[in-house]
Specification:
CATH superfamily of the largest domain: Ribonuclease H-like superfamily/Ribonuclease H
Distance between the termini: 58 Å
Largest sheet: 10 strands, mixed
CATH class of the largest domain: Alpha Beta
Number of domains: 2
CATH architecture of the largest domain: 2-Layer Sandwich
Radius of gyration: 24 Å
Strand order of the largest sheet: 5-4-1-2-3-8-7-6-9-10
Structural class: alpha/beta
Number of helices: 13
CATH topology of the largest domain: Nucleotidyltransferase, domain 5
Strand content: 15-25%
Helix content: 25-40%
Shape: elongated
């Protein structure tokens, strides 16, 4: 879903404002819950989401804001936050939060998240705006979809969600036997790291797809990364490329975004027989031994090989356009970033190695046939 740029004020080229849309959801409250984020900065747009097996709506609303702010790469950014949570918006805009801080969060829940929020809030210039939920705002609706998909949706799909450890340890009276006394929540100073108490998940899941209109023609790639409770979407496009290049580049971009030291195992799901068979059937290593003699896309395969070797990567082939939600999402991202961008009049970058190879082939053909001197 493209950002509604008409709603955004003019940005300065050096430091454009960032628009952060967030939402959270919890089925049962408490129950399975998730958060969703859309970040918009100029022509850039990023989606993120995550979920937990048992949490509350307020925690997910607040965590969505935190995750969005933590994803911003520079300090001192001007950030406009749009949320349908009165709990979050009013706590900051009406100054309630600072009263809670003065009283050491006495009688207040979610101190772990509020303490985490304050740390990142102080690094930027943040303004909050309240949106009425389920009122047709496209980015708010998208955030809601991601939050539900990552929480209750994940449970319905049979996925195992991580624990919201702080909540279950200190606040979740319904998840413990009757008569059990929960521990008192620690003060903010001692709560640092509670949200990161467990070891990081060891396996990441990467869904990818690529598309080129005309093949060659305008093309794009799309990837969905699932790392623990975090879900991230990525995409990009070029003015002239091929389907195989975009399929392979989607895998490369995804692997480059997954830290190997934290996730040494990656499960890749792709509908590209070209990519999956090249790796799983060992064709790639024959190509490497022959220095990619007469093989296309050597530049991308050489970029892929070191990423593959630094971790355990397992490929799984998916039938394209068969209804798999993440494969369909990757396809939509790829089409939108390539042919979609071109149809919107956007100027896409060049796939330089590919265009250079076209020039080389044309030059070789001219040399082969020579000049007609008849």
């Amino acid at each position: 879903m493209p950002p509604q740029t008409s709603q955004h004020p003019t940005a300065t080229p050096a430091r454009p404002p960032i628009f952060l849309y967030t939402d959270g959801a919890s089925s049962g409250n408490p129950g399975p819950g998730g958060w969703g984020v859309v970040l918009v900065c100029g022509s850039l747009r990023k989606e993120m989401s995550g979920g937990f097996r048992r949490t509350t709506n307020n925690r997910m609303e607040l965590l969505a804001v935190i995750m969005g702010l933590e994803a911003i790469k520079w300090e001192g950014a001007t950030v406009e936050v749009y949320s349908d949570s009165s709990y979050v918006v009013d706590a900051v805009s009406k100054g309630w939060l600072w009263g809670w801080v003065k009283k050491d969060f006495a009688g207040k829940k979610n101190r772990d998240l509020w303490t985490r929020f304050i740390d990142i809030y102080r690094k930027h210039k943040v303004t909050f705006h309240w949106l009425k939920g389920h009122n047709g705002h496209p980015e708010n609706e998208r955030c809601d979809q991601m939050a539900v998909y990552s929480g209750q949706g994940a449970i319905e799909r049979g996925e195992t969600l991580p624990a919201d450890e702080y909540f279950e340890k200190y606040y979740d009276t319904d998840s413990v036997p009757v008569g059990t006394v929960l521990q008192s929540a620690p003060s903010p100073s001692s709560a640092q790291g509670e949200t990161n108490g467990s070891s990081a998940p060891r396996r990441a899941i990467l869904y990818t797809d690529g598309a080129a209109s005309g093949n060659p023609g305008p093309g794009g790639w799309g990837a969905v990364l699932v790392m623990g409770s975090k879900r991230t979407e990525m995409s990009g496009g070029f003015r002239l490329t091929t389907n195989n290049r975009m399929e392979l580049l989607a895998v490369i971009k995804g692997l480059e975004a997954i830290p190997a030291q934290i996730f040494p195992v990656v499960e890749v799901y792709s509908d590209s027989s070209y990519v999956v068979n090249a790796v799983e059937k060992g064709w790639l290593w024959n190509w490497v031994r022959s220095s990619f003699d007469k093989k296309k896309n050597a530049d991308l395969w050489m970029r892929f090989v070191p990423l593959y070797k630094e971790r355990s990567v397992r490929f799984h082939w998916l039938k394209g356009h068969s209804g798999h939600p993440e494969n369909e999402r990757c396809d939509a991202l790829a089409v939108d970033a390539g042919a979609g961008a071109t149809s919107r009049g956007e100027i896409l970058p060049s796939d330089v190695p590919f265009e250079q190879s076209l020039h080389s082939e044309a030059t070789a053909e001219e040399g082969l046939f020579g000049e007609n001197t008849d």
